[in-house]
Amino acid sequence: MSLEHKVVVITGGGTGIGADAAQAFHQAGAKVVLNGRREDKLAQTAAAIDASGETVAYVVGDVGQPETSQRITALAVERFGGVDVLFNNAGIFQPKPFLDHTEADLNDYLNLLRGYFLMSQAAVSQMRQRGGGAIVNIGSMWANHAIAATPCSGSSTAKGGVHALTRSLAIEFAPENIRVNAIAPAVVETPLFEPLLTPEQLAAFNAFHPIGRNGQAQDITEAVLFLADDSSSGWITGVVLPVDGGVTAGRN
């Protein structure tokens, strides 16, 4: 795999999809820099990846703040020499009727979009110096395919922005060998859903997916590694890939 010896930055890297992807990137031979808001989770994930700390590092902070993305890339350069792959994975999600959304809700979602934008700026600046790179963004099935039972206009507004950002950056930086793609998941069983649904409620979504089950973190990780690896997907850029158990293929 071309991921060996690469430097990978992962936002939202302390739990769920981010933590699973971090482990997989490391197993593929990459060095990993994690970001998130909770130091305890980041430290736990980093220790599980490499207890020596020689091939993993982390930065605590809100990626929506400009100084955070700068600190992340600075650490990646200081510890490992640069940035080759960015996985913009930080996320929040809370289905809520449109008229119930508060200004604070909207600000949280737009702050997340800002984080994807700023982190990509910081990463691209480093990728240019290394002759190329890959960005993989987490979008959303809901931004492509509204579901009446789970209204989420706030999240979909921000994730629709992520999809647009993905395509725009893909075209702008294709001449510089920087590929930019996104993944649009449906229901993936991660800690993101724990405050929202009981285990029984979450299990009820299995039938929502034509394949017959909810997604798992590993399902997304496999797609992330594929899109990050030039030897596997070097001719793919600007794609928003549904990894959704078949939801957007048609009605189930």
Describe the 3D structure.
- Helices cover 42% and strands 15% of the residues.
- It is α/β, with parallel strands linked by helices.
- Strand 1, helix 1 and strand 2 form a beta-alpha-beta unit.
- The relative contact order is 0.15.
Key terms:
252 residues; single chain; 8 helices; Rossmann fold; 7 strands; alpha/beta
Task: Summarize, please.
With 252 residues, this protein is an alpha/beta fold. Helix content is 42%, strand content 15%.
Task: Lay out the secondary structure.
Layout: E1 7-11, H1 16-27, E2 31-36, H2 39-49, E3 56-60, H3 66-80, E4 85-88, H4 103-129, E5 133-138, H5 153-173, E6 178-185, H6 199-203, H7 217-228, H8 230-233, E7 240-243
Parallel strand pairs: 1-2, 1-4, 2-3, 4-5, 5-6, 6-7
Numbering strands along the chain, what is their spatial order in the largest sheet? 3-2-1-4-5-6-7
The geometry reads as globular
Number of helices: 8
Order of helices and strands: EHEHEHEHEHEHHHE
Number of DSSP strand runs: 7
CATH architecture field: 3-Layer(aba) Sandwich
Secondary structural class = alpha/beta
What is the CATH superfamily? Answer: NAD(P)-binding Rossmann-like Domain
Query: What's the average pLDDT?
Result: 96
Radius of gyration: 17 Å
The largest pleated sheet is described as: 7 strands, parallel
Low-confidence stretches: none
Here the CATH topology equals Rossmann fold
Note the gap between the termini: 36 Å
Any idea how many domains?
1
